[in-house]
Amino acid sequence: MEKIPLPPVGMILLAQVPSGNPFAQKVVVIIRSQPSGIMGLCINQPLRLMVSDFEEPSNNQILDTIPVYCGGPCQPEKLTITGLEYQSPHHMQWHFDLNPNALSQCAEQHPHMKFKAFCGYVGWDFSQFASEMEQKQWLPIPFPLPSIFLGTNTRLWETLMLQFYPFAMKAPYLPKNPHWN
């Protein structure tokens, strides 16, 4: 049995669990990684809500433009607003727990920042994470893909599985015509 290292922040994981599992077809990005625990956000489950649906009415129009995702089952009542800024094609800066009242100022200072919000998060203690990785319940993407954080990503899991782990796909997810790959 090989020793599982702490995952790096930014690592992307694809769930490989049965369809009845709440994590089925989820794509998670690791946002905190420490021996005491690992935290991630599910990035492919939009809720069709905006941050303004959770906040008191205000004149902050930016809240009307920030989509909300189901980040995971832990603390689903907690809303985390994030900002993603690309500094080069392969380097991004991700800001967490942005203050809703300071978003206008943040958007002015960082005009290219893309905002998303998440209800809840995914959490593991290290032994649970290591066990799930050994059982191949999560498949890591070998390198960060900044472009996957843009858009609503509702078909992201299938797209990434076909790109990185086509041999692990079950028949219902494979294209009917193999030439479509």
Strand count, sense and barrel status of the largest sheet are: 9 strands, mixed
The CATH fourth-level homologous superfamily: VC0467-like
First-to-last CA distance: 34 Å
Taken together, the total number of domains comes to: 1
CATH topology assignment: VC0467-like
Tally of strands: 9
Structure annotation, total helices? 3
Strand content: 25-35%
Question: How does this structure look, described?
Answer:
This protein has 181 residues and is of the alpha+beta class. It is 14% helix and 34% strand. The protein contains 3 helices and 9 strands; from the N terminus they run E-E-E-E-E-E-E-H-E-H-E-H. Strands 1, 2, 3, 4, 5, 6, 7, 8 and 9 form a 9-stranded mixed sheet that branches. A hairpin with a 2-residue loop joins strand 2 (27-34) and strand 3. The longest helix is centred in the C-terminal third of the chain and has 9 residues, at 126-134. The two termini are 34 Å apart.
